[in-house]
From TrEMBL:
Keyword flag Lipid metabolism: no
Name assigned to this protein: 4'-phosphopantetheinyl transferase superfamily protein
UniProt cross-references to InterPro entries, sorted A to Z: 4-PPantetheinyl_Trfase_dom, 4-PPantetheinyl_Trfase_dom_sf
4'-phosphopantetheinyl transferase domain sequence ranges: 138-194
Gene Ontology molecular function: holo-[acyl-carrier-protein] synthase activity; magnesium ion binding
Keywords for this protein: Transferase
Pfam families assigned to the protein according to its UniProt record, in alphabetical order: ACPS
Length: 247
């Protein structure tokens, strides 16, 4: 897979060009894009074609990851696991030169142990891997293949109003699912009821846009912006930063 350049949203602040080039030269990582999505947050997207041995060659701190390598996974899942960590280290080099190793907290959220204040989220689906990193705090991202499964499972994770808004559109069902996954990762709190506590406002589907989501907890309510975009050939990418409005 070849490097295809950086993409940016209008509100994004571009990273210094030299930092992208120097990091790519350092690890020879064939990325699809590195996108600044705020003053500090960086989103990496990788179309995965590499073999398991090639991915190991790109990964630093190999003894650390060998001890955590998920034995028994099929080849695709193993490649996704490795690629997520390679890409996380690649993005870390864009914002911090400190050596660090990736861990998971009790809720499964990934984090760099040496940089506890840095927000990190990893997602993969099929041939795509996405990583979002922000030194300022928690983030969430998710990438999903559009498929009918989301519509079949909709009664488990969508309210009646959300299902009515999705209608019979498989893309909207997948986007609803992905957006709720992103919001769930942003807060990393077990036990949340997706159809009741993570609520999305109705939306018109475009190639890229912003959704409004609400987190409804026992003693607090907050509103969040969830960004999305279509990814070829048939994927949905969503992400959210720690910015929120308390209601």
């Amino acid at each position: 897979m070849s490097w295809r350049g950086r993409s940016t949203r209008c509100a994004a602040v571009p990273l210094p060009h030299y930092s992208i080039i120097s990091s790519l030269h350092l690890v020879k990582l064939p990325l699809h894009s590195i996108t600044p999505v705020s003053q500090t947050a960086v989103l990496g997207l990788w179309q995965l074609t590499e073999t398991i041995p090639a991915l190991w060659d790109l990964l630093p701190a190999q003894p650390h990851y060998l001890a955590r390598y998920p034995d028994g996974r099929d080849e695709l899942r193993a490649r996704q696991w490795l690629a997520g960590r390679v890409l996380a280290h690649q993005l870390l080099r864009e914002v911090n030169d400190a050596p660090a190793t990736l861990h998971n907290d009790p809720n499964g959220r990934p984090y760099f142990a040496e940089l506890p204040g840095l927000g990190l989220s990893i997602s993969h689906s099929g041939e795509w891997v996405a990583v979002l990193l922000d030194p300022r705090g928690a983030v969430g991202t998710d990438i999903e293949l559009v498929r009918t499964k989301a519509q079949q499972l909709a009664p488990r994770f969508l309210s009646e109003a959300e299902r009515a808004d999705a209608g019979d559109d498989a893309v909207k069902y997948s986007l609803y699912w992905s957006a709720k996954e992103t919001l769930y990762k942003l807060h990393s709190r077990r036990g949340l009821v997706l159809k009741e506590q993570l609520v999305l406002e109705p939306f018109g589907l475009r190639e890229a846009g912003v959704l409004t989501g609400h987190l409804l907890l026992e003693n607090s309510r907050s509103q969040h912006q969830i960004y999305y975009q279509r990814v070829p050939p048939n994927y949905i990418l969503t992400y959210a930063l720690s910015e929120m409005v308390n209601l």
